Amino acid sequence: MSGPDRIVAAEVLLTSPGRNYLTLKITTAEGVTGWGDATLNGRELAVAAYLREHLCPQLLGRDPARIEDTWQYLYRGAYWRRGPVTMTAVGAVDLALWDIKGKAAGLPVYQLLGGAVRDRVRAYTHATGWETGQLCDAVDAVRERGFTAVRVQSGVPGLDSVYGVGRGPGYEPAARGTVPAEEVWDTAAYLRHVPGVLAEVRAHAGPELALLHDAHHRLTPIEAARLGKALEPADLYWLEDVTPAENPDVLRRVRAHTTVPLAIGEVFSTLWEFQQLITEQLIDHARAAVTHAGGISALRRLAVLADVWQVKVSPHGPSDVSPIAMAAGLHLALATPNHGIAEYMGYPEPAHEVFRHAWTCTDGHLHPGDAPGLGVDVDEALAARYPYEPALLPVARRRDGSMTDW
Ligand code: CS2
Ligand code: MG
Fold first, then answer.
1. What is the pLDDT of residues 330-362, one digit of tens each?
2. Is 41 close to ligand 1, i.e. is its CB under 6 Å away?
3. Which residues have a beta carbon within 5 Å of ligand 2, which is an ion?
4. Does the predicted TM-score (pTM) go above 0.85?
5. Does the CB atom of residue 186 touch ligand 1 within 6 A?
6. Do the beta carbons of residue 177 and residue 391 sit within 8 Å?
7. Cα separation, 278 vs 275, whole angstroms
């Protein structure tokens, strides 16, 4: 009997088919290729260096089938554990190894995770409009595409710009360059305006459409409590990232005042950051991204912990994680009983061409497809035609010039 397969190459690939993506490619002696997403928006080069200089050399010669052991080796072995750069790199390795295991078995990854517990994965997408009328039009357009859930974000009177909201079509907040643009933020103006917007959207859309809203870490606990209460008549599916949640205790104050479901955690990178939020039921949806929080292996553990406390796992799925991470999130979602809802922002057309994916988005629902592994093939020749260019999201300052969360 021949021995186990071995990893013979591990390389990183930076490409920008509409936006920047960092991809890890692992090749085995038996000629199997595994792909992992390593994109950390605005900090791509830090993860590229972490992988190239530190993890890739340690992968050579290892048995690709030993996914959990490799995860433990990279997480515990570094001594300097946790943090988004480290965990994104570990996540990329984990995704590539699940991809290899699926391809070696001839099975889609969701089958290796126990098989489908649902037929398809419900998704929400984004609708934005500077004015409420534009926003309602955007909501209608999303419904026409078959979505039954939509995240709504609007402009704020008196502000020139709001992160995540365009004044016209085709909004892309990341600007090319190495120094971010600066915006002005005013929480009081936002709190005065947004409950009315959500009320209008609810009246326009009727009772059934699931509405979500993202406060993007900008509020203090008492502001968050006030917003949650004010939004209760709009019957939200969730209110996201009301506070930075670096201190989980503060969510108790929010919970004491409102029953609006809370979703938190897209910037978290380990189970430990979620522990208290879950065990005290301070959130309803854990938003860890499959790439940024250490891969499928790590999110499986998160889902089990969350299930004990009746919390759902609804991973972050913006267009700044690649179609490989989207695939990984979907395999997990299809096989995880307490998955909540998937985020689907969509991708620039060239990204669909570079990352040819088996997953599909039909009538507001996603499916990972039945190709072996994660079901994404990277067209390296095409990727090379879209060279990486640094791009950054804006930062924000209050009216007095001090920095705030954006
Ligand atoms: C947002 C993201 O999708 C979301 O919920 O919060 O668009 C987030 O701003 C970006 O992923 C940051 O890179
Ligand atoms: Mg968010």
1. 999 999 999 999 999 999 999 999 999 999 999
2. yes
3. 214, 266
4. yes
5. no
6. yes
7. 5
